[in-house]
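Researcher: Please generate the 3D structure of the following complex. Treat every line as part of one assembly.
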Amino acid sequence: MHDAKDRFSAPAEPSGFAAVPQLWPTNSPPCIQSNRGKMGDCHPATLSLVFAFGGLIWLWLINPTVMAWLNPAGTIPFSLSVPSALVILASAGLLYWILQGRDAANRVPSPQNQQLIEFIAHSADPAFLKNQQGCYLAVNAPFAQLAARPAIDCLNRDDSALFPPEIVDVFLKHDRQVMADDTASYRENTLVIHGAIYSFHTTRWPYRDAGGRSIGVCGIARDITAQKPAENPVPGARADMESRIRERTAALLSINADLERQIAARIQAEVALRDSQERFRQLAEHIREVFWVYGIDEERLLYISPAYEEIWGYPIDGLYERPMAWIEAIHPDDRARVKIAHIDKRSSGHFHEEYRIVRPDGTIRWIWDRGFPVCDEAGHAYRIAGLAEDITRRKLAEDQLRRQQVELTRISRLSLAVELAANLAHQLNQPLAAIVAYTQACLALLRQADTDPRVLTGTLDEIVNQGLRAGEIIRHLRELVQKHPAAQAAFDLNALIRSVARYAQTELNQAGVSLKLALADPLPEALADDIQIQLVLLSLIRNAIESMSEQRDGPHQLTISTSSTDSDGVQVTVRDTGPGFRLEMEEELFRPFFTTKPGGMGLGLSVGRSIVESQGGQLWATLNPDGGACFHFSLPVYPVS
Amino acid sequence: MPDKATVFLIDDDQAVRDAIRLLLETSGFTVQAFASALEFLNSSVVGQPGCLVLDVRMPGLSGLDLQKRLQAQGLRIPIIFITGHGDVPMAIRAMKAGAFDFIEKPFQGQTLLARIEEALAVDGQERCRQAQRTDAAARLALLSPREREVLERVADGQYNKVIASELGISLSTVEIHRKRVMEKLEAESLSDLIRLLTLLQDP
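Model: Done. Output below.
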């Protein structure tokens, strides 16, 4: 800027001016000298006369001499010389006409033009004249300095050849406006030209021919860069400003250096990122799970690994085109649920679904799909990264296991039923045997002639009692095996335990086991299939009895207790004083077909656990500190409405 | 003998025990009832003539366990098992172990009474045989070694002459020994002598 000011503040040298020749008469002002010596710049008439004169001299003086010297014997017939001269003269005429015609458009000699050109030549500000096509016809020295080239090189060129494109636009717009409005226009522009910043006040006006027709644009630009920052120049302000500019420049330079360092670091980081991206790509493309990245802000799938094609059986390209294609492949029964989860994940960032997909070949696969939010530094989740895994095999195995458990439960129920029947037979046979014996005793007595029937009263009372006892047994049994919908319902666990205990009383008595109930009261109602829970409890009681019968000595004490658990459940504990079990066998106990009993099938505990777990509870075993084993099971509590 | 014999009834079910006892007593049997096998074993009646009416399934010592115990003690009292379970394997085990019978509850009173009669009769015969055997053994113990040698040969059917030459004694000495044996064993004929020896050889 400083330099620019210097350049333009100096008086322009008219010698730096240049204009196309036709704008200047032959006796043109001093600036023209620099253009002399070039054929293209000579006046057409001069050129034509020189051509004609030279041609004739050649024809009549030089040519015969040369010919005679080359061929002394030959003569040139005059008849040939005359047409040649005519051809030369015609050529000169033609040349004149061509040259004259070429410059005709620009050649509008008029007194005003003469003054205009001189004004341009002598202006201290950059000034110019250009034709309708935008080519410069005349420029002065300041202009040439602005264009950073000799004035002569600016001629017959347009702005695009002289200035950077963004400036060209500014100039051309101004030109077009002037020509369209056919009047002068003033503009103030700040332009960056060849690295320096200028503010110009530019005036452009139409350049007219003698007839007043607009045939180009004239312009003059005043460099107001120096006045620009402070409209009222104060002495010293400039120096102050210059020092500020220097400071600013220094600051800019240091910022620039910083930027360069940052850019270098950035490039390094990008290389590292590319490396890690490459590693990521390799990982994502080789894992068996489908890895996906969903852009929350973009609301679309950003990436999905090739395993998708393998698992879903659809091409990935289709997925990028139709992002919902993966949902369309989901089994109709699961689709709505997954769709909702998919919508929810945009806000929560989390996604955790298990669903089935239907592949193009109609096969069904189970997918375990879960996504987690990826947050920026501010903690805003902007992406969700997820893994979708094909768990079909595991699912099938689970199904298989479930079927096996159902089968085991069925078998166990069957064996329980057989056992129940045997137990029932035994229990009923006792009172029946008593009734038959009493009755026969009565009959025997009655047959004796001297028997007083009144002595039979006590015996007959006993018979009635035994009949009632048999009825009671059957009633309890009915309670136990009553046909029940195999559905969960609320029930009083304590009442159930009392009922089962009554049922098992005979067995307990026979085994010499005393039963103690320690039931929590009040106890929340449990939620389960009570028939199944009765079976589990009975099976635990029988296990306890059998384990205690293995040892002859010591107390044979069975304690059944209930309690509420912390986690909204109720718990039943069946505690015996038997030999217990070895700690390392704890899990073995619950394996199907594991048994310590010679005649046992080893299904009781394993089925018991399946049943309890299917009801939402747990079944486990512990050892008592003072000997014996404890079997516990928990059940969910019926919600208190 | 039947008058002295007692039916020992062991059943843990009080009603059953009471009813059977009444039935048996009405039918003229002497009955002693026990609530458990141990109660019976610990009583003073073990070894007394009679028969056992025994429930198979009982707390503590089961019916089969008691059967084993008694056999171990050499007591051969007939046992009639009564059971609420139609448990065939258990019945087989009991019968193989020498049970007199295996009756399922509820039972016809007559069936049980008839079997008890038989059992008591068997027990009586057995006890009679046992008494004779004990008696015979006591008498046999009175014989001198020489008399015992002569008895063995007589039982084998050897003639006196052969016995005399084998033992290196005179014929008249053999005859004296033979007469003393007959006297000591209270046998009036050779067939009496043989029967007595057979009784002793039986298990």
